[in-house]
Task: structure prediction
Amino acid sequence: MVTSSTYDGPTRRVTVLGATGSIGRSTEDVLAHAPSGQFAVEAVAGGRDAAALARVAIHLGARFAAVADPSAYRALKDALGSAPIEAAAGPEAIVEAAKRPADIVVAAIAGAAGVEPTHAAAMAGRVVALANKECLVCAGEPFMRDAAAHGARLLPVDSEHNAIFQALGGRDVASIAKMYLTASGGPFRTWTREAINAAMPEQALAHPNWSMGAKITVDSAGLMNKGLELIEASYLFGVEADRLDVLVHPQSIVHGLVSFCDGSMIAGLSNPDMRTHIAHCLGFPDRVATRATPLDLAAIGSLTFERPDLQRFPALKLAMDALRQGGSLPTVLNAANEIVVEAYLARRIAFADIARLVQAACEDAIRRGEAGAPASIAEALAVDHITRERTRASLA
Ligand code: NDP
Ligand code: MG
Result:
């Protein structure tokens, strides 16, 4: 690892799931620039890009590298060359990476593919730095229950939840009046409903403040991402829908706020740079220096806030409804959304179809009498699977 100074505390062993993605690369940057000896990397895992995975594994000096696509094994082996890193491939190898002995597992696989490996890390009682919000949206209740039963600790990487976690400072949620997650409003914040409905993928992918993977960027453009995050927050902090709210904040400096029963409000601020939130989790409860630019509030000048417009951003309303109704609806919403966002990126459907088709999937689950709460991760994944199949069929 490239490091700046030395460290004389105990070394923390880290595993990074989704090491080649946007969060993975930010994690790599934090680890590579932390003082020598503060962190050691146990395992890295990725989807199919063997060359990128081998590069990060070698850079971070990992012991184990796992790629989900079994056909990528040879390429991973070749790219690792003579480096002393064990290679493995296939979905079971990703779960093995998640379970290897580590002090902290960064869960940054995109989408529902991250549920099983992240659950495996939680079942092994790890500290989990959770970026994969789909874990809690798809399987919130069983995931939280299993994590608690196996002594796992979840630290939120998602910027809004990380800010709220810091603002809470370990206080009991009973003293909270409301939690606010901020949303930049994305590229369509000031657009008319007609213009948003007709937006092309390159317009949805042009996020004004954050650089992220394609799926979450499209989710952000329609505010579905904020809806998924409300559901994530509800399970993570154990707070019901009535005490969760969204504020549109175009500067993306304030990420989350907590108002307490005495009228006080505490906010979490930083520049929009995921390295800050990742470092907070990796070092918790201590702080780790990063290369993120320090916040200069005088240079920013003003911070503004507005209420979200649920007419122009119906996906946020759908997620709010799914959270209130509970049961399998968050699972259905998440699964249908992944399929329709994929179809949108492939230019098979219009932006307006994303919310329309997700709503149809939720209504279909209710009509079929399948809106009951999944009792286990397996049941949640079964709902996820059938919803994907039905949503794909509705697109054909
Ligand atoms: P990316 O699409 O950039 O990266 C996804 C990562 O997951 C890649 O490393 C990819 O590997 C890997 N992957 C995909 N499928 C599998 C699989 N089946 N098994 C193992 N690894 C797999 O996504 P992001 O980094 O943007 O997001 C990751 C998660 O973090 C998401 O859940 C997102 O919601 C959340 N998040 C992201 C934020 C951000 O700023 N990016 C902010 C807050 C939360 P490969 O490259 O080989 O396909
Ligand atoms: Mg977020």
Q: What stands out?
A: The first strand starts at residue 12 and ends at 17.
